[in-house]
Amino acid sequence: YDLEYRGSIFMPFEGFRESGAVAKFTYSDQFHLEIAAAVAKVKVGLKVVSMFRPEEEFVLSESVYCADMGVGGNGGGDGDSDTNGGDRGTPKNSSPLWRAMFELDTLYFPTATGHIKIVNYDQHVYSTTARLQLNVINVCLEDLFTFKNILLMENGLMITSSHPLVSEIKSTLKLDGKRTSDTAARLDLKIVSNNNTFKYDMSGEYQFQPLGNVENEGIYSLSYRLTTPFEALDHCFFNFHVQAEKYFYSSNMTIDVVDNRINMDGTLEIDEHFFGLTTDFIVASPSFTLPFCHLSFTKDFSSVEKSVSIILKYPNKKKEAEHFELGTTWHFGGEEYIKFSGNVITAFKELDNLQASFLFSSEPEDKEYSVEIFFKNSHNIELQLNGKIQMENIYLHIESSLDQFRELVMNGTLKEQDGKLVLESQVSLDQTVRMDLQISSSQGVPLFMIARMTDNRRWHQGEVRDLV
């Protein structure tokens, strides 16, 4: 394949009399690419010539490359003899797999030239050698890459420069793992700048330990570690473990960045009708400290009576536990049975424990209806009400913790006679006051009431007529 374009522009301006551009692409045994533009005395462009398995006339003297910088036959790492070493030969006495030369012209630097060579001198090992010359700066690169599969590879890299700003870069990368169980990766990096050495270390590891013969059930572990020469980020550690079973998960996580540390433990239980989440964590840092914190959420729909609850605990200024809780349960059985209850717990003295419940049940065939109501506000107020209607009989019982009102009991009947709806009842208040009450309602008299009250052997009688 050949493609070539050349163009020139002539102008009557001093210094800009001729400008031009060229684009050339050739590919046969060699790959040749040239792109350049020139305006006045400024030239910008790139020229690349490369060849796979180059022939003798394309072979360059090894002197254009850098001397052996130490990456060599051991990959820059600590691999075993199976991966690195043996009598397989060396990059210098093996035929190149690919070789290239290039020239680069920019607006800010003069022509930069470079050479690069890749040698596949073993089934899984590739060696790359390169050199870049930029004005008075020489940059040399040597890399050894071992690749067996995506989870088993190793790379050693060495870059040297004649510029004191970055005179040396050396790194080793190793990845060793199995598809279904363990994977470990490690990167070591060293940079020399102005005779100062900066070291970076990074490693990560993944492990899976199966539990039984069930697929995907087991213990998963993930860890990460980073150290740098910078005080603001001298270390970063991360560990995460989770045990996964069919309906249950438990986990532990630790994060440590410089002087900031977070620990978290949690459990998760989940199935079709149940969901339970619990987590505990600790935060320690120079600016913020949380000695403990507990948070849980539970939803239980596994039985007829369903429930939901949320719990939060954290320390106050005295490092005592502040407890907040919100819970509710309910059961809806149609028109014949309704039950609902709830509780609220807070750290506030006036509202440290609030409970309430409501229950309604009925048997329509027997014309029987009952209701129960309960309310409690901390230790100050407690109220309980029980009411029942059976046929024509009415019963009501109320108990409270108030000094002014302890107990009220009412027994009575509700029936229809002579076209009127009549309620007759006896009401007892704290067993000291008794009231006989008769209330009737008709079309002509919406409300008629007679009440007789007896208190310590004294009685009072009064009538209220035509009260609308």
Main sheet summary: 30 strands, antiparallel
Class computed from helices, strands and strand pairing: mainly beta
Mean pLDDT: 84
- What's the Cα radius of gyration? 44 Å
DSSP helix fraction: under 10%
Q: Low-confidence spans: pLDDT under 50, at least 5 residues?
A: 73-89, 459-468
The coarse overall form would be elongated
Describe what this molecule looks like in 3D.
The protein is an all-beta fold and 468 residues long. Among the domains are: 1-67 and 95-116, no CATH class; 259-362; 392-467, no CATH class. Helix content is 0%, strand content 65%. It has strands at 2-10, 18-27, 30-39, 42-52, 98-105, 112-122, 125-134, 137-149, 152-161, 168-177, 183-193, 196-210, 218-227, 235-244, 248-257, 260-270, 274-284, 289-300, 306-315, 321-332, 337-345, 354-363, 368-377, 381-390, 393-400, 407-417, 420-429, 433-441, 448-455, 458-464. It has a 30-stranded antiparallel beta sheet, with no helix packed on it. Mean pLDDT is 84; it is low at 73-89 and 459-468.
Itemize the secondary structure elements and their pairings.
Elements: E1 2-10, E2 18-27, E3 30-39, E4 42-52, E5 98-105, E6 112-122, E7 125-134, E8 137-149, E9 152-161, E10 168-177, E11 183-193, E12 196-210, E13 218-227, E14 235-244, E15 248-257, E16 260-270, E17 274-284, E18 289-300, E19 306-315, E20 321-332, E21 337-345, E22 354-363, E23 368-377, E24 381-390, E25 393-400, E26 407-417, E27 420-429, E28 433-441, E29 448-455, E30 458-464
Antiparallel strand pairs: 1-2, 2-3, 3-4, 4-5, 5-6, 6-7, 7-8, 8-9, 9-10, 10-11, 11-12, 12-13, 13-14, 14-15, 15-16, 16-17, 17-18, 18-19, 19-20, 20-21, 21-22, 22-23, 23-24, 24-25, 25-26, 26-27, 27-28, 28-29, 29-30
Region (Disordered): 75-94
